[in-house]
From TrEMBL:
<dbReference type="InterPro" id="IPR041881">
    <property type="entry name" value="PqqD_sf"/>
</dbReference>
<comment type="subunit">
    <text>Monomer. Interacts with PqqE.</text>
</comment>
<dbReference type="InterPro" id="IPR022479">
    <property type="entry name" value="PqqD_bac"/>
</dbReference>
<dbReference type="InterPro" id="IPR008792">
    <property type="entry name" value="PQQD"/>
</dbReference>
<dbReference type="GO" id="GO:0018189">
    <property type="term" value="P:pyrroloquinoline quinone biosynthetic process"/>
</dbReference>
<dbReference type="GO" id="GO:0048038">
    <property type="term" value="F:quinone binding"/>
</dbReference>
<keyword id="KW-0884">PQQ biosynthesis</keyword>
<protein>
    <submittedName>
        <fullName>Coenzyme PQQ synthesis protein D</fullName>
    </submittedName>
</protein>
<dbReference type="Pfam" id="PF05402">
    <property type="entry name" value="PqqD"/>
</dbReference>
<comment type="pathway">
    <text>Cofactor biosynthesis; pyrroloquinoline quinone biosynthesis.</text>
</comment>
Length: 90
């Protein structure tokens, strides 16, 4: 399923993003456990706020990391997160 690029993203109801000091990483919490995220995954997911679209997130990350051409990698990851049910487009 293709993720719409101009629709705001939010976390699915059972998922919550949190910085975990013990893990020294961002984690995605859900009722059965947690998913430890890579640094780049955390950077992407921490920009999901229920108001920002894929376009907004890509733009924000590109401004934060101007030396990197990361548009396709961000889109690919967000589509993966959407396919896994971590995020929704409403």
């Amino acid at each position: 399923m293709s993720l719409p690029i101009s629709v705001p993203l939010k976390f699915a109801r059972q998922y919550k993003l949190q910085w975990e000091t013990a893990q020294d990483a961002w984690v995605l919490l859900y009722p059965e456990g947690l998913i430890k995220l890579t640094g780049s995954a955390g950077e992407i997911l921490k920009r999901i706020d229920g108001r920002s679209s894929v376009e907004d997130i890509v733009s924000n990350l590109q401004a934060a990391f101007p030396e990197a051409d990361l548009q396709q990698d961000v889109i690919d990851f967000l589509e993966h997160a959407h396919d896994k049910g971590w995020i929704t487009a409403d």
